[in-house]
């Protein structure tokens, strides 16, 4: 730190040059970029600096001599009143962090009395002068900091939301699916309820890509995702992109037979989109094969076994001709 008085003994440095500059303190108080209020022992305002005047619309001449809580009755019962009381009666200083007490004083951005109050950080400090007790209230405008914090919080929230959404299709991504499956498995294990899982794969999608190009392939994936997600009506159901051209659905409180019906409705809905497929594909239109597996407390009681069973059912649906639903445990006749 710079030493402005290198040759002055320490004891003398504390006594400022008041006689030469009688208005120095007044001027500093007028320039201070924070609110300064001094109360006497009866809570009457004895100092109200220029910052307070310009942010409250009340000149010092109007408020000095008045009891603070008569002037601002809305402060009664607030933490500020308690802090002032403790300062004047028990000599206790206090800091009121903005997070707890955001805008106690009716203060507005300079010259705009009305609208949003400035966010305030307040310190209350007792002091004595002669035999008299006073308290200093310092009020900082922390609106910019609070605004920045809010923005960062919003951005963090939006990033968090994005990290659970598949960028191409707008439905849940694999991470979201994994979290939802674990959560619902835990619930099924605790309460012994139903839980079903669908794994879906677009048929001959390589042929689609090869024929129409990757970009149109992406557009096809997005259309299929929208249609399939639209078939899941209940709020607890989760439609997700499992990876590549594979989709998945977590269906809580859904038995294997109910899941088969849902899967059949999804299969029919995709076929009914009538998206023209590549000539090399097994069908003229884009279709989807679906494997279904359901929670079973003895056999399929964790994510790995449930996914494996759904994947095997999906494989069986492919091998038995595609554009169909196979439920784990179905007897399937293979086409090849
Ligand atoms: N356009 C696009 N294609 C993708 C994406 N992810 C995976 N694919 C393609 O999907 C195709 C999957 O092909 P395969 O796994 O051979 O299976 P398939 O042609 O669908 O055949 P079956 O599953 O047996 O019906 C590959 O050509 C991948 O490149 C993607 O995000 N966008």
UniProtKB/TrEMBL annotation:
Gene Ontology MF terms: diguanylate cyclase activity
The protein's enzyme class: transferase
PANTHER family listed in its UniProt record: DIGUANYLATE CYCLASE DGCM-RELATED, REGULATORY COMPONENTS OF SENSORY TRANSDUCTION SYSTEM
Lineage: Bacteria, Pseudomonadati, Pseudomonadota, Betaproteobacteria, Burkholderiales
Domain GGDEF: 193-330
InterPro entries listed in its UniProt record: Diguanylate_Cyclase, GGDEF_dom, Nucleotide_cyclase, PAS, PAS-like_dom_sf, PAS_4, Rev_trsase/Diguanyl_cyclase
Protein's name according to its UniProt entry: diguanylate cyclase
A Pfam family that the UniProt record links to this protein: GGDEF
Regions that span the bilayer: none
């Amino acid at each position: 730190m710079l030493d402005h008085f290198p040759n002055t003994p320490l004891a003398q440095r504390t006594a400022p040059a008041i006689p030469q500059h009688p208005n120095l303190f007044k001027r500093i108080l007028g320039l201070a970029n924070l609110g300064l209020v001094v109360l006497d022992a009866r809570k009457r305002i004895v100092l109200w600096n220029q910052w307070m005047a310009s942010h409250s619309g009340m000149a010092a001449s109007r408020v000095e001599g008045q009891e603070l809580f008569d002037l601002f009755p809305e402060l009664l019962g607030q933490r500020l009143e308690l802090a002032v009381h403790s300062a004047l009666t028990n000599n206790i200083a206090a800091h009121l962090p903005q997070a707890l007490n955001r805008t106690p004083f009716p203060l507005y951005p300079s010259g705009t009395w009305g609208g949003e109050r400035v966010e305030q950080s307040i310190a209350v400090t007792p002091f004595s002068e002669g035999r008299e007790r006073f308290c200093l209230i310092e009020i900082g405008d922390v609106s910019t900091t609070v605004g920045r914090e809010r923005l960062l919080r919003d951005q963090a929230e939006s990033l968090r939301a994005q990290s659970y959404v598949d960028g191409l299709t707008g439905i849940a991504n694999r991470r979201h699916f994994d979290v939802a499956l674990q959560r619902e498995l835990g619930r099924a294990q605790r309460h012994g309820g139903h839980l079903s899982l669908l794994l879906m794969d677009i048929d001959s999608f390589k042929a689609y890509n090869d024929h129409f190009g990757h970009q149109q392939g992406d557009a096809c994936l997005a259309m299929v995702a929208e249609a399939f997600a639209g078939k899941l009506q209940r709020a607890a159901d989760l439609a997700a992109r499992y990876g590549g051209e594979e989709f998945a659905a977590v269906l809580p409180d859904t038995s294997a037979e109910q899941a088969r019906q849902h899967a059949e409705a999804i299969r029919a809905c995709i076929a009914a989109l009538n998206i023209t497929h590549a000539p090399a594909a097994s069908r003229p239109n884009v279709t989807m094969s679906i494997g279904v597996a359901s929670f079973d407390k003895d056999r399929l009681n964790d994510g790995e076994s449930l996914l494996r069973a759904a994947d095997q059912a999906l494989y069986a649906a492919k091998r038995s001709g595609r554009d169909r639903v196979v439920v784990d445990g179905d007897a399937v006749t293979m086409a090849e």
